[in-house]
Specification:
Length: about 280
């Protein structure tokens, strides 16, 4: 046995080939740079005596630096994935908002078209009713003109008949109505110095202790329907349909009526021929 067999080896552990190559490459590159710098200097330059400390590569042997780099890379990847997810959510939200806006606009257009159609239908219906009312008034006017007569064969209208003398409740209604002639017309007016058509009729009938509704079409719906050729003082005249009248007045006899017409004329007493009513009702 050799006398050195039990002496432990003092050699350092071998480094891996890749680390040795890296060290040699770095060292060689640095030394090469110094050599080139020295060769490029002036010929009479003094020798460099300064000691240069080379950076050690010990940090490459430390696993913490590699772990930090890996962690940073992973964090960057996660952030990029998060950004992409947020962008996707924003795009989806914008698309949904645009779709909802288109749906809302389509619904609004549909409703607007339906409203226009309904207005057109209502206008056509009102024009039809107005035409029917005008035809009815023209027919009544013709009947009134041809009603009555004398031996000579000449006709006389209701307006040419002598003034009828009302009595009782009718007299009170007619007297009150005539007393308001000249007052102003005000929409919604109920007196004492300004009226609308139904407000005047309501107040006049109150003189006979008769309570009438406030609205014209409600007033014309009461009582019994009578012919315009058979009117009596105190009858309520109406314009339009009986259940849908838009104007009322009081027949005062002699082919005349008293009514709150409009803001231009106020309360007036006029002949039936001035504005032929559509019909009449009797409550007395």
């Amino acid at each position: 046995m050799s006398h050195t067999a039990h002496i432990p080896s003092h050699r350092k552990p071998r480094r891996s080939a890749s680390k040795l190559a890296l060290r040699a490459g770095v060292a060689g590159g640095v030394l090469g740079t110094i050599a080139v710098a020295g060769a490029a200097g002036p010929a009479n330059a003094e020798p460099v005596t300064e000691t240069i400390e080379m950076p050690t590569l010990g940090s490459l042997d430390d696993g913490s630096g590699l772990a930090s780099a890996v962690a940073a890379s992973a964090e960057a990847s996660q952030q990029e994935a998060l950004d992409q997810s947020l962008q996707s959510q924003e795009d989806q939200a914008l698309q949904k908002a645009a779709k909802d806006a288109r749906t809302a606009k389509a619904e609004a257009d549909r409703k607007a078209e339906a409203e226009r159609a309904e207005k057109a239908r209502a206008k056509a219906e009102q024009e039809r009713k107005d035409a029917a009312a005008r035809a009815s008034r023209d027919n009544v006017r013709t009947q009134l003109t041809s009603t009555g007569g004398d031996s000579s064969g000449t006709g006389s209208s209701t307006n040419d008949a002598p003034t009828q003398a009302p009595s009782g409740a009718a007299a009170a209604i007619v007297a009150f109505a005539r007393a308001q002639v000249g007052d102003a017309y005000v929409t919604g007016g109920t007196g004492p110095n300004s009226w609308d058509c139904s407000g005047l009729v309501q107040a006049a009938y109150r003189q006979a202790n008769i309570d009438l509704p406030r609205i014209s079409y409600q007033q014309s719906s009461m009582g019994t329907s009578v012919s315009l050729s058979n009117l009596q003082p105190g009858d309520i005249l109406y314009w339009g349909s009986r259940s849908g009248s838009y104007h009322v007045a009081i027949y005062v006899g002699g082919g005349k009526y008293v009514g709150a017409q409009n803001s231009a004329t106020g309360v007036v007493e006029r002949s039936l021929d001035w504005d032929m009513p559509s019909g009449a009702v009797r409550l007395l």
